[in-house]
Amino acid sequence: MAKHLPGSGEKTGLHIVAFFEAAKGATVLLAGFGLLAFVHKDLHDAAMKLVMALHLNPAKHYPSIFIDAANRVTDLQLWMLALSALIYSTVRFVEAYGLWKQQSWAEWFGLLSGAVYIPMEIFEVSRELTWPRITVLVINLCVVGYLGDVLVKGRKKGTEGT
Prior knowledge:
0% strand, elongated
């Protein structure tokens, strides 16, 4: 696939987005390994310790839902979640590599994979206006907008040279 040759400012921006995608991949990969630490362990005990460490009342609604869910998780489900984390991380690392190398396929992939979340993020912000939801939406809009701008500029440069 053709290599996109952006200017130095675009290259820096693509490197920032690539780093961000790699960081997401690394975070999910670490979470996946963390899940594997609970295989053949007492998840109920771990959930109770976490609820107590956060100074939450285990009898309250949300802590009790969390504890009940931990009781029902099987080792197979933990393995499947860890495998899903590995697959997601691999996709993010490949995207990050492509963006770092200024590959147009990675720019398109980043644009599309980011844009697919925007309707859900807007819905979540409209349901409840919180700083984390607003932050996620704004960052995603910035990344998608930036990649769209890079693609449009790259297309214009490509048509000018013909």
